[in-house]
Amino acid sequence: MSNNAIPCLTHVKRDEEGGRVGAPPLIAFNALIFDVSGSTQSMGDAPVEQLHELMTQLQEDAKTDDRNIQLSLHTFSSAIKQVFPAAKDENSVDMRTFTIPSIAELRNILRPGGSTALYDAGIQGLDVLDRAYDKEVAKIPKSIMNLNPKITKCYVLSTDGYDNTSVASISDFKKKLLEAKKNGVQPLFLSANISSALTEQMGFEKNTTAQFQPTYQGMTQMLRATTNALRQYSSGATESIDSQVLTQDMDSVTPPAPPQYDSNGTPMMPGLNPQISLRQHANIGLGFSPPPLRRY
Predict the structure, then answer these.
(1) Confidence of residue 66 (pLDDT cuts 50, 70, 90)
(2) Which of 33, 75, 122, 138 is the most exposed place for a label (fewest CB within 10 A)?
(3) Where are the domains of the chain?
(4) pLDDT in tens, 127-144
């Protein structure tokens, strides 16, 4: 791993001389569990576009430094699906080598429909994260593990409503989450239409929860901020993810209007300057560009 290739991210800790604080973790796990029930259609293509951006940004970070950033994605409605990795005997993908699906492929994967098995999906996501950790750590020589290397485990659960389908209870989920936190998992709960009282009953704390509006604009803002937070945490720039910082990032973003697509899934955006790329147009609409990667 190169020692002079460090991503430049917002909210990076620095010492009095401006130096970056905190080395990247040996392995950074990111488990994403996303609601695709019927009601999520109110968000349009925001989950599709922003999950694609999230994976793209994590992959750029992983390749820049040859860092071991692992990712898994589960979706849930009435049923739960392990999306990435596709093979059921695998538990996470290596972002250095993972082939990110296209927007069109993700749109098909995240197609809304069904009810909300929130607790069942949340528990399954934590189980898969555990297995991914065990499998990757088993590859590390004991001489390295004896040095107690930094390994991060981030768990993001997102929903736009209450559970109405799960076999597991809220108590089952809370027990699993509290156990995970004791084992070093950094949780983050992104929700719409969920009361703070229920959030606490699930085992999440105030600083690990964030509310979003279940609209294209609301989800776009939330996932942009979440992408920044995951990049910081996966790089060692922050020791935890605080929802207050997440909210600050959301407040700094002017959300775009939902794009229109033709029958082939190609964006149809009026007033485009043909000399400017679609991504540049998106950044202009958002009021900021994703954090650049610089070498130090």
Answers:
(1) very high
(2) 138
(3) 27-255
(4) 999 999 999 999 999 999
